[in-house]
């Protein structure tokens, strides 16, 4: 590369705002149990000014972004004058590197603590540091001990030896619940199933059916919901799921509960459905 070009590129970089991201690396991978088991990638983003922050993305979000970039800027794109060759997106087998990534995880954000006193660890689990050291806070072990890292060493130490400058961010509750009514010949029961999904998530019919079969240990079940008239409607496809979610948005819901509710019945039990339009909800299904 010629010297004038190097100087020009350096000048262009210097003019960028300090909050412009300049690199992103996978810091950790977290396994989640949602409508189906999935992995959440923890990405450390560094900005020009030296700061850093974390973003959390599922694999499918990387895939969707890659597809959009390919559509707009790929070699076969006709949407604009600029095209580029995008790298191949690694397959889901990449999560096999979870252990190696976790062992080399980076500090969560910027400086969190400053050491008030010297602390000498008495075993391999404890972190040693000097008064005035800046320590990255990784987690709270309990009310008396913290986990942190300094000078490429990681360990636990007493809270009383440090002053927290910037605390760990408050994490929102990621475990929400699906309320299910299970109906058999003799009784109806309620079961609340926990999933690590955002309340705005819409599951696929396949994932939801597999989850319910596993939870209730039954293969001959079908999924239903109550429509705006109170009648049971059998779910058969992704489109049915979307309609159920859409109708549920007009109804009140409890905190950390999905606004839609499932009614689980046996495949051959057709008596739960209202076959007389206009009469109202069937009385065959017993509410709990």
From TrEMBL:
InterPro entries: NADPH_Oxidase/PX-Domain (IPR051228), p40phox (IPR000919), PB1-like (IPR053793), PB1_dom (IPR000270), PB1_P40 (IPR034853), PX_dom (IPR001683), PX_dom_sf (IPR036871), SH3-like_dom_sf (IPR036028). It is found in: Cytoplasm, Cytosol; Endosome membrane. One of its GO terms (cellular component) is endosome membrane. Keywords: Cytoplasm, Endosome, Lipid-binding, Membrane, Phosphoprotein, SH3 domain. It is a peripheral membrane protein. It holds the Pfam family SH3_1. The keyword Membrane applies. Residues 175-267 form the PB1 domain. It comes from the Eukaryota. Residues 108-167 form the SH3 domain. One of its GO terms (molecular function) is lipid binding. SUPFAM superfamilies: CAD & PB1 domains, PX domain, SH3-domain. Residues 19-144 form the PX domain. Subunit of the phagocyte NADPH oxidase complex that mediates the transfer of electrons from cytosolic NADPH to O2 to produce the superoxide anion (O2(-)). In the activated complex, electrons are first transferred from NADPH to flavin adenine dinucleotide (FAD) and subsequently transferred via two heme molecules to molecular oxygen, producing superoxide through an outer-sphere reaction. This is Neutrophil cytosol factor 4.
């Amino acid at each position: 590369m010629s010297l004038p070009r190097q100087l020009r590129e350096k000048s262009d970089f210097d003019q960028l705002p300090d909050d412009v991201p300049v690199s992103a690396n996978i810091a950790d991978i977290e396994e989640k149990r949602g409508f189906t088991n999935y992995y959440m990638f923890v990405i450390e983003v560094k900005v020009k000014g030296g700061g850093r922050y974390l973003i959390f993305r599922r694999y499918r979000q990387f895939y969707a972004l890659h597809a959009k970039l390919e559509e707009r800027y790929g070699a076969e794109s006709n949407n604009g004058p600029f095209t580029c060759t995008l790298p191949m997106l690694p397959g889901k087998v990449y999560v096999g590197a979870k252990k190696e990534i976790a062992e080399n995880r980076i500090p969560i954000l910027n400086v969190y603590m400053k050491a008030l006193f010297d602390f000498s660890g008495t075993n391999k689990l404890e972190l040693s540091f000097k008064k005035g050291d800046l320590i990255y806070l990784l987690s709270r072990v309990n009310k008396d001990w913290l986990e942190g890292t300094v000078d490429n060493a990681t360990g636990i130490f007493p809270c009383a030896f440090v002053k927290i400058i910037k605390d760990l961010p408050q994490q929102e509750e990621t475990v929400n619940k699906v309320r299910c009514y299970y109906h058999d010949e003799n009784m109806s029961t309620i079961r609340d199933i926990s999933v690590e999904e955002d309340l705005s998530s819409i599951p696929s019919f396949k994932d939801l059916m597999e989850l319910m079969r596993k939870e209730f240990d039954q293969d001959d079940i079908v999924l239903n919901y109550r429509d705006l008239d109170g009648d049971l409607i059998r779910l058969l496809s992704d489109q049915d799921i979307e309609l159920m979610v859409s109708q549920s948005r007009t109804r009140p819901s409890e905190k950390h509960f999905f606004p839609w509710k499932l009614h689980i019945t046996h495949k051959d039990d057709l008596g739960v459905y209202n076959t007389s339009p206009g009469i109202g909800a069937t009385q065959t299904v017993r509410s709990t």
